[in-house]
Amino acid sequence: MPSPGNELVRKHWTNLVAALAPPAGIPEYRASFEELCATFPVPAGTLVEKVDAGGIPALVITHPDVDPGPAGSTVLWTHSGGYIFGSAHGYRSFGAAVSLAAGARVLMVDYRLAPEHPYPAALDDATGAYRWLLAQGTAPERIVVGGDSAGGGLALATLLALRDAGDPLPAGGVAVSPVADYTLSGESMDTRAHVDPIASRETLDGLGALYRGDAAVDNPYLSPLFGDYSGIPPLLLLVGTDEVLHDDAVRVVAKATAAGVDARLIVGQDQTHIWTLFASILPEGQQAVDEIGRFVRQVSTK
């Protein structure tokens, strides 16, 4: 049985959907999501450092109880928001939670947003931030690349792009509720629409169109479901049962596993889109963050 916090999460999503209804536009989308993120507490003493990650603005977030040291692990995270809204600043609470769970610092990338900066701007920023970490002397085996929602799809695309470019690959990848298929062909787009309080085929198609521009919807750097996962490092994907994106995660894990990747899937029973974001008010969200932390510790400390 889901915890009482589950209903609060659904209320937050319902309120956000109402705030985004027409005539609201992109400025309202961005402001409303930042207002939601501002309700999540940032632990006192959390170190939040602005950095220029090779020309890409980012925050390095370290929980006050974490001292990763100069050789510690780093989680590079790309936030949610359909490539249209969201920010590193709004993700400080989540970044601190991941930092504590993983015993690592979190590089929260403020990638450029569409429609001002369509594809491949976000991908260029994510790969650029990773290469900046390498240039700073961070060993690739001490880095995990992760993200949620659109940022989850971006994390997977980043791994594919780095592999294809011949870059040293990180220790692993994490994707929470990833948007991995802009053809929107997953059965859950229809079968789970009645239980998803925030995402829908129409919403994903509309936001996706603003980001993808002229790119083909099955471009693997845009829809990583269609990528070749050969040689990709271990993956952890998380998705809720109550998501239209459920099948995106399931199919990515199946494809990666078939390519020989150590890919694990965690399905949150009765959970909605990116329930990890609500870790401060949702026990199941905190449990999922703890799973992410265990994965990071496992793959980046070998």
UniProtKB/TrEMBL annotation:
Domain Alpha/beta hydrolase fold-3 span(s) in chain numbering: 75-275
Keyword Protein biosynthesis recorded: no
Record carries keyword Lipid biosynthesis: no
Gene3D superfamilies: alpha/beta hydrolase (3.40.50.1820)
Coiled coil: none
Annotated keywords: Hydrolase
Pfam name, any one: Abhydrolase_3
Family recorded in the similarity comment: Belongs to the 'GDXG' lipolytic enzyme family.
Protein name: Alpha/beta hydrolase fold-3 domain-containing protein
Originating organism: Protofrankia coriariae
